[in-house]
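Is zinc ion placement plausible here? Inputs below.
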Amino acid sequence: MLVQTDGMSEKEAISVIQKHEQTIQELQTMLGILQKRLYVQQERSNQMEEQLERSKRQLFYERSARSKAERALRAERNGTQSPHSLVAEIECKRCKLMFSSDNQDEDACRYHVSPLERHCGECGRWSIANSEVVFCQKPNIPCWYDSYRWPCCGMTDRNAIGCKSGKHST
Ligand SMILES: [Zn+2]
Ligand SMILES: [Zn+2]
Ligand SMILES: [Zn+2]
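Reply from A.M.:
I modeled the complex. Tokens:
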């Protein structure tokens, strides 16, 4: 924006410039504070979204485990199978789902081979999503993430289901 200096003395013009300079600095400070707050909120909402996705997958998994157990029970009642033993539920180290310790299905676990990366809309850098807060070099404010990617498969949804499958891992 141009500062209107017509009919002003040099001293007046300088004071106008200084006033604008001060406003700019105040706004930059405010912007930094707001971006930090936004970052915290964004991280919280991401965590909740992840939790939601995990619960959805757990639900899907539980439903298929239930029908599997029901089939086993029917077979047991028909005398075609030995009594079904109760097995403990354990958490998979990789996909974080709870699963029965007797589940050795080759495709039960879905996962990505590379860690999730995030893109800063401010400085344009990519960083590992689970790393510490990354700061933009200039100005010194937290990076603002506008997009994500899984380098292994190119998917851009941060909750995209794994591109590889295998047995659950303990
Ligand atoms: Zn798993
Ligand atoms: Zn992937
Ligand atoms: Zn940045």
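Short version: The chain has a mean pLDDT of 84.
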